[in-house]
Amino acid sequence: MSSRDQGNYPVDALTMYEEKSFWSRDFGPYRPEPSLQEPIQVDVAIVGGGFLGLNTAREFKRDNPNARVAVLEAAVIGYGASGRNAGFSMTLFGLEPQVTKLRWGKQRTLDACRYMIKAVNYTRRLIEDHQLDSDYSHPGFLRLAYSNPQVKTLEGAYKVYQDLDVANELGMRWVEREELRGEFNSPLFSAGLSEAHAGLLHPCKHVRELKRLATEAGAEVYEQTPVQMIARQGNQVVLTTPGGSVRTHKLVLATNAYTHLLEGLEGTRSLQFPVWTSVIVTERLSEEQWASIGWANRQGLEDVRQLIHYFRPTADGRILIGGRDVHAPRGSQDSMDYDFTPAVWLELEGHLRRMFPSLRDVKVAYRWAGAVSVNIDMAPEIGFLGDERIIYSTGCLGHGVSLTHLNGRLIADLLNGKETELTNFWIVNRSAIRLPGRLLPFLSIKAVRALLRTVDHVQERSMPGLVSGE
To answer: What is the DSSP letter of 307?
Structure first.
């Protein structure tokens, strides 16, 4: 941090930047598993110790108790997106359903909705069946519009769900301004789309509970074990780490936004691009402060801006708000050190106070950022890299909590060589758009970001204090 411009933020206000998220601080002291210290031979190696990697290990070990499975995490469990995300277990797939339908058609959009419904159910059952200490609640989800153009966008999303005949299954209903103003003391809310089928969890507690389940199933977890090189040798794949090599028959790349950093495999740089999103968390609110804003149901919130805001309460009575803008530095193809986003943090603080004026004096206690995996055609992807020995998963677009859990079961089926309902989902081995090199993806993300900011500016220009970039 000393080498960074800290802007208006004192060092003590940025403690969580150094520790990566509020969630990791809230978790308390953590003892990582030992790093790999000798060469090993395994049946399946998994690079990446997040939701996807750990649940894949657990599911595969349950299917194959005698197989040897190793999870290799470069830092510690929960260091990446699985420990920094907002903790929304939701059915949103990719971007708006209108975008998915336009790009992929009605049937694939319906298939995606069905898959995400299964994903939320799967994640909830996993937590409840194993009594995971994940601070899980299932309060539902509310999407919000601030302006007339945004109301039309939200109406379009609702119509897609109705046309797909899944709105009732999702527990969706339209919420008019009057009802919103009765539930929330906010001058901004013009309309809402409520969904019953969504949950909230503490991501850092949860990912470390997944580690427990994986190790109890018999998987080996090695933390602080970066993979320096991956190479195919005969009918095996060899991974080089500082403490020893790993020889494996099958390999899963559960690295998502970090996938481009892997060395030795052709094609990993074109699979996805890391894009940073920012988050802040307030101090604990008093009972009087909560009463002043309403929000009695404590559900997750997300607005319908192109560059969205997302909001949620924490289990200990804070408010989390994230989003507002994204950034994709050109050097992000070589480094992941872009967690310092003071301009966006300030914008998030400003929006929180515009949304709930009664909280104008509430202090922000934690600020952080983290990378999500984005691809050009804006939909998740699972596939084989070169041959069926190597499986990858990318492109969660920031909506990966429930998705990665069910993807773990899907990838276990692929490792088993089984054709199942899950492996027939169209994201598996789909023909994705690839942008070669480093500059073109960077420029594409910049162009899309500029377009989204412009759309938000136009849709909100009649609303004082809500112009994008203010």
So the answer is: S
Closest CA to 185 of 282, 290, 292: 292
Calpha distance 218→212 (Å, rounded): 10
3-state secondary structure of 429: coil
- 262 within 8 A of 270, measured Cβ to Cβ: no
Q: Tens digits of per-residue pLDDT, 267-314?
A: 888 888 888 999 999 999 999 999 999 999 999 999 987 678 999 999
- Name the strand (E) or helix (H) holding 135: none
What pTM, to 2 d.p., does this model score?
Answer: 0.91
**Comparing 100 with 142, which gets the higher pLDDT?**
142
Reduced to 3 states (helix: H, G, I; strand: E, B; else coil), residue 275 is strand
CB 366 within 8 A of CB 283: no
Which residues neighbour 451 within 8 Å (Cβ) at sequence distance 6 or greater? Answer: none
Residues of the chain above pLDDT 70, percent: 87
Q: Which two tokens stand for residue 178?
A: 């009057």
Q: Can you spell out the DSSP letters for 344-413?
A: HHHHHHHHHHHH-GGGTTPPEEEEEEEEEEE-TT-S-EEEEESEEEEEEEE--TT--HHHHHHHHHHHHH
Of residues 347, 256, 251, 358, the one with CA closest to residue 308: 347
Q: What helix, strand, coil percent values describe the chain, rounded to 5?
A: 35, 25, 40
Contact criterion met (CB below 8 Å) for 340 and 4: yes
Whole-number Å distance between alpha carbons of 193 and 195: 7
pLDDT class of 238 with cuts at 50, 70, 90 = very high
- Tell me what the pLDDT averaged over the chain comes to: 88
Domains of the chain from N-terminus onward = 12-460 (3.50.50.60)
> How many residues does the structure list for the chain?
470
In angstroms, the CA 207 to CA 394 distance is 18
d(CA 299, CA 136): 12
